[in-house]
Amino acid sequence: NIAAEYNALRAENEQLVYRAMLADELQNTLSQYEDLSDEIAANAAMQPIVCTVIGKSDGNYFSTFTINKGSRDGIEDYMAVTISGALVGYTENTKETTATVRTIIDSGASIAALIKNSRDQGIISGTLGIDGTAMCRMYYLADDDPPRPGYEVITSGVSMSFPKGIPIGTVRESTRNMDQNKQYIVVEPTVDFQHI
């Protein structure tokens, strides 16, 4: 009897552990939908279009990826793509039912940006850090006042048609005034590109 009760309790425990894991997963999914709903409500004036990633470039992080919406859904080239209010990248190669998104961490990206604290303007382009993490570099800044680590970088609204003020990341370090051949600052993106 003791052995039978032990086995029954063990089976019940496994079932409860499974249910707890399932509840955690559902809670995480619900949280993502709540965040998405809040973001849509906050940006209702911009008429956001909700998309799903259906393909990505090779590698451990997102350099470019494909979404499941295209021109028939209102997507055009060079529209801003965001997640949780932060800039992921912009659309290109838009087709009827799909579009490619070039992320800000791709070396081919070129996005007008500004340092929120100082209002200095420059261009953001992607790169890999020394340790292999996805980073951005900001070029063409004035030499007189290098930005400090922690300063926020946002879209400037210049060149591409998407709005000014979308968060891109924060200044991690500046190589300006150290080496004439390295006139840029390193920007740590707000978006977690390994988990889009």
Tell me what you see in this structure.
- The chain is α+β, with helices and mostly antiparallel strands and 196 residues long.
- It has one helix and eleven strands, in the order H-E-E-E-E-E-E-E-E-E-E-E.
- The strands form two sheets. Strands 6-7-8-11-10-9 form a six-stranded antiparallel barrel.
- The radius of gyration is 22 Å and the shape is globular.
- The model has no long low-confidence stretch (mean pLDDT 83).
Give the gist of this structure.
This protein has one helix at 2-42; strands at 53-56, 64-67, 80-83, 86-92, 99-103, 111-115, 121-128, 134-139, 152-155, 167-174, 184-189. It has 196 residues and is an alpha+beta fold. The chain has a six-stranded antiparallel beta barrel. It has a five-stranded antiparallel sheet with strand order 1-2-5-4-3, with no helix packed on it.
The outline comes out as globular
The percentage helix is 10-25%
Radius of gyration: 22 Å
Q: Count the strands? A: 11
Q: What percentage of the residues does DSSP assign to strands (E)?
A: 25-35%
Structural class computed from helices and strand pairing: alpha+beta
| Number of helices, counting only DSSP H or I runs of 4 residues or more | 1
Order of helices and strands: HEEEEEEEEEEE
Unreliable runs: none
Which strands sit side by side, in order, in the main sheet? Answer: 6-7-8-11-10-9
Main β sheet profile: 6 strands, antiparallel, barrel
Question: What's the rounded overall pLDDT mean?
Answer: 83
**Whole-Å distance between the termini?**
51 Å
